[in-house]
Amino acid sequence: MPPETSESLVSKVVAFDFDGTLTHTDSFVAFLKFTSGSIRIAAAFAAQPSLLGDYIATRDRGALKSRLLFNLLGAIPKRELEAWAASFAEAAGDELFRPDALAEWNRQDQPDRLRVIVTASPQILVAPFGELIGADRVIGTRLAFSDSGRLLPDLDGINCRGEEKMCRLREAFGPELDLEAAYGDTAGDREMLAAARHPHYRVFKKRP
């Protein structure tokens, strides 16, 4: 996939949300279960009730994700986290993707179009899934890392949902973004759907 830098628009963009759209379940939760197990996840919330308390107060899903991931994996090196993500995608890909969503994804594989995943889930965790299905780009929430390349309990920027999805698309493809179609399933996709020439809301229903 090309690096995530602003570039001149050369094709129509088709944007797919990931969790609940391309997949039938939340990939972030599935990744945590894959790496840590349900018992450790529950223990993390029990040991740090502020994780849930702060989320209830702020509704900041991005902060909850980054803090919970750090709580479970610690200051893991970026390369190690990438390796975990690749292993997870290889192990869970067939179990997570909706077959009707993949059929539409494949139908959009046309010479004049770029297929892009735009997700609130951490980009580093979804990127291997993008590689698996041939995405031209994966845009997601950026996790923060230290100067030495270790995970921090913070985000680099803000959670990639709502208007931030459109900001990130324009950042990647320029202000003249030609959003041919968009697929989503929650209020966090509303702005992306509104900007698309052909919006599709909750059109995928099948499970593996």
Describe the protein's architecture and organization:
With 208 residues, the chain is an alpha/beta fold. It has one domain: HAD superfamily/HAD-like (Rossmann fold, 3-Layer(aba) Sandwich), CATH 3.40.50.1000. Helices cover 49% and strands 18% of the residues. The protein has helices spanning 18-22, 27-35, 38-47, 50-58, 61-73, 78-96, 99-107, 123-133, 163-173, 190-195, and strands at residues 12-16, 113-122, 137-141, 143-145, 151-155, 179-184, 198-201. A five-stranded parallel beta sheet has the order 3-2-1-6-7. A two-stranded antiparallel ribbon has the order 4-5. It starts with 11 loop residues before the first strand and ends in a 7-residue tail after the last strand.
What does the largest sheet look like? 5 strands, parallel
Average pLDDT level: 92
Parts with pLDDT < 50 across at least 5 consecutive residues: 1-9
What is the domain tally?
A: 1
Structural class: alpha/beta
Level-2 CATH architecture: 3-Layer(aba) Sandwich
Radius of gyration: 17 Å
> Into which percent range does the helicity of residues fall?
40-55%
**Strand arrangement across the biggest beta sheet:** 3-2-1-6-7
Give the distance, in angstroms, between the N- and C-terminal Cα atoms.
26 Å
Fraction in beta strands: 15-25%
N-to-C SSE string, H for helix and E for strand: EHHHHHHHEHEEEHEHE
Backbone shape:
globular
The number of E-state strands comes to: 7
Query: CATH superfamily assignment?
Result: HAD superfamily/HAD-like
The CATH topology is given as Rossmann fold
Which CATH first-tier class would you pick? Alpha Beta
Number of helices: 10
